[in-house]
Write a sequence for this structure.
C-alpha cells in the first residue's frame, strides 16, 4: 500500500487546509497551463470586464471538458483553469490521494472551495470535476457566475475513454462500466439543470467540438475572434481526451 506523509495530527495534516484557496501559480498543474494562461491574459487585457463573461464546462469524467475547454479558451483569449488540476497543485498530491486521506466528502469540500474561488474571477474558462454538480452550492455558483456548457457522452463512450485510467477513484471497482452507468443516471439530470446548452460529444474531434461550442457562444453574445492560420495542437486532432477526475 502506498505510504503517505503524516503530521502530528495524523494523515490529514499532510494536506493544506481548505481555506484560503487560491488558484495556484506554481506546481505541475500551473506549469502545464501557464503559457496559454499568460497569453490569454495579455490578449484579453484590453477588453472591459463586462465583455468577458465566464465559461464553465460540466460533464462526466472522460467527456472532454479539459481538452475542449482549453481549445475554446485559446479562441476566446481567456485563461483556462481545471478545478481538479488546481486542487492537486494546491494540495501537492493527486486526486486519489485526497480521496484516500479524506474520503469523498473531504474531497468535495475542497472542490467546492476551489470552484467558489475560481468562479469569482472574470473572463475565464473553467473545466469542473465530474461530480461538482452534486452539491447545490456548486450548481448555484456556476449558474450565477457564467455560461455553463454540458459536454454529454454515453456511458459506453465514457467507459471506452476511461477504462485504462487508474487515476479515477470512483472507477476502481469490479464493474467500472456499471459504475459509469450509475453515475450517468444520477448526474445527467443535474448537468441538464445547470447547463445553458448541451453539446453531444459522440465522434467529433476536439477541434470540431470546440467549434460547436464557439458557435453556440457566438449566438449567446460572446465575442469570438477568427481562428489564427496556424496548425492546431496535436491534442486537437482526435476524439476528446480523458478528463482527470471523478
Amino acid at each position: 500500500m502506498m505510504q503517505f506523509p503524516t503530521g502530528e495530527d495524523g494523515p490529514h495534516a499532510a494536506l493544506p487546509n481548505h481555506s484560503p484557496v487560491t488558484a495556484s501559480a506554481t506546481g505541475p498543474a500551473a506549469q502545464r497551463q501557464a503559457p496559454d494562461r499568460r497569453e490569454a491574459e495579455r490578449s484579453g487585457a484590453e477588453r472591459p470586464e463586462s465583455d468577458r463573461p465566464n465559461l464553465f464546462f460540466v460533464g462526466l469524467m472522460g467527456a472532454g471538458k479539459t481538452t475542449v475547454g482549453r481549445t475554446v479558451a485559446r479562441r476566446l483569449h481567456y485563461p483556462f483553469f481545471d478545478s481538479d488540476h488546481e486542487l492537486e497543485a494546491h494540495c501537492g498530491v493527486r486526486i486519489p490521494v485526497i480521496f484516500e486521506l479524506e474520503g469523498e466528502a473531504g474531497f468535495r469540500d475542497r472542490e467546492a472551495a476551489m470552484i467558489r474561488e475560481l468562479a469569482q474571477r472574470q473572463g475565464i474558462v473553467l473545466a469542473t470535476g465530474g461530480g461538482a454538480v452534486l452539491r447545490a452550492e456548486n450548481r448555484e455558483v456556476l449558474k450565477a457566475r457564467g455560461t455553463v456548457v454540458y459536454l454529454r457522452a454515453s456511458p459506453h463512450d465514457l467507459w471506452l475513454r476511461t477504462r485504462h485510467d487508474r487515476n479515477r477513484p470512483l472507477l476502481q471497482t469490479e464493474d467500472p462500466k456499471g459504475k459509469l452507468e450509475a453515475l450517468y443516471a444520477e448526474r445527467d439530470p443535474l448537468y441538464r439543470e445547470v447547463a445553458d446548452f448541451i453539446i453531444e460529444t459522440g465522434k467529433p474531434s476536439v477541434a470540431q467540438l470546440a467549434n460547436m461550442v464557439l458557435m453556440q457562444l457566438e449566438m449567446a453574445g460572446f465575442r469570438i475572434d477568427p481562428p489564427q492560420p496556424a496548425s492546431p495542437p496535436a491534442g486537437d486532432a482526435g476524439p476528446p481526451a480523458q478528463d482527470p477526475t471523478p
Summary: Residues 1-13, 19-35, 40-45 have pLDDT under 50 and may be disordered. The radius of gyration is 18 Å. The longest strand covers residues 146-152.
